[in-house]
Structures are given as structure tokens and as C-alpha cells.
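Sanity check

After download, print the first record. It should look like this:
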Amino acid sequence: MNETENGVVPAVLLCLEEAARRLGDISPWTLRKHVRRGSVHVVRLGVRVFLDAQEVDRIRREGLPPLSNQPFKPNGSGDAH
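Expected C-alpha cells:
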């Protein structure tokens, strides 16, 4: 990645559909469920939800936990602000 003048690497944000496509065999709806469960960290801009490309890389490396064994977090506490 290219650095800006102040040495900060800008984040690459992906919509849920693009993130799901890059992850391969996962639907955007499944990814949304993981966001709601808090197992995926997202960036919210208004009502839109994005994943940082580094989070997609982390999911590729570590995988996602099974949805059936996770407690539901109704406020979407997996969000990064």
C-alpha cells in the first residue's frame, strides 16, 4: 500500500458484497450475520457497512466461527468506530 505524506497507510474499505466475494464461498447474508454476532469488525459510514481489507485478510487466515455456537449481540458490538 502507498503511504500518505504523513506516513499513514489509508484503509481500503470493502462493501459487504465485495468482501464476501473476496472471501470465496460465503454469501453477503452470512457475512451480515457474523457482523451482527460481533465476530467481524466493521466500519460504519452512515447506514453503510464496510470491512477493512485487513479484516478480510484476517478472516481468510483465521476463518469464521460457526454461527450456531455464538451468542447473539443485538447492538452489533463487533463494530469498529
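If your output differs, re-run the checksum step. Summary of this record's structure: The CA atoms of residues 23 and 39 lie 15 Å apart.
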